Amino acid sequence: MQYLVSVIFDKDSLATEDEQAAIDVFNDRLVAEGYWVFAGGLGAPSSATVIDNRGGEAMFTDGPFLESKEYLAGFWITEATDLDVALKLAAEGSKACNRKVEVRPFL
Length: 107
Prior knowledge:
Elements: E1 2-9, H1 17-32, E2 36-41, E3 49-52, E4 59-62, E5 71-79, H2 83-97, E6 100-105
Antiparallel strand pairs: 1-5, 1-6, 2-5, 3-4
Helix pairs in contact: 1-2
């Protein structure tokens, strides 16, 4: 099963050199052990554009959809045999990036 591991952060700063090095080591491990599907970091919320086309005409708005102290800074998509394995990997990812993470299964 695949799991989304969302990286939650509360500042507009990028990973430090040490954090990025730890993330790279963690990513290499995910690949080597067959857990890797995809991962990526995201720009700051101020770089977001919200698009609403529910009314048939697309409306574009600058900035994040939700104002919040915390935001999605990046994510991993992992392939794990069960939730326990996914949670263990997520805990290691949290340590590597020095941020909180949230784990959710794909449906």
